[in-house]
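Readers outside the structure-tokenisation community will struggle with the description of the input data as it stands. For illustration, here is how one protein appears when written out as sequence plus structure tokens:
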Amino acid sequence: MTIQKFQRVLLKLSGEALMGDQEYGISPKMIRYVAEEVKSIFDLGVQIALVVGGGNIFRGIAASSYGMDRASADKMGMLATVLNSLALQDALEKIGIDTRVQSAISMHEVAEPYILRKAVRHLEKGRAVIFAAGTGNPYFTTDTAAVLRAQEIHADILLKATKVDGLYDSDPVTNKDAIFIKRISYMAVLEKQFNVMDMTAISLAMDNHLPLVVFNLTKKGNVKRIICGEEIGSRIGS
């Protein structure tokens, strides 16, 4: 019998993860795939929360580099995460997972406001919870929002989904000799400035001893393998 190692987890998805092979937007095939991966651990009885980025629709930092006010650009990025969250909610509910979207920006007609106690209650009742709109503040990434929400709901671990097998000492796409890093400390990630999550997110995880796993989402079954204790991806910890 498959036994899960973690009871409550937070899965961080980039907006780009939902694009599939497209140049932008949401790939119906990819969002179904993500939903099935979530279901694979939901069926084990794991309480699952998610944070999804908005880079497939709008990226605030990129817009600010072209002269847009950073605060305005980031707010547009937050709205993009809401679009992705609603799409993911639809995909999850189509395969039988009762799901709630909670937004850090009030928009009662499309999502619940973020209320910690309500979010935890949803998880305890067997619902997936998607945290949208980041932290609700500009200048903070969805990586930081993911770590913050993981801490607030007392998640056992944060899973950072990527398109590569984990953390490397250089970009494995451009350097075939890049060395894979199985385990690394928070401080080493900060010192070497590895571009796996932003430094604020890593610092917050370090301060609160939140374990992180960086893994390849495109390899089917990886999420379930991690939850069941297999050494998949790169582990960031103390």
In short: The domain at 8-237 is CATH 3.40.1160.10 (Carbamate kinase).
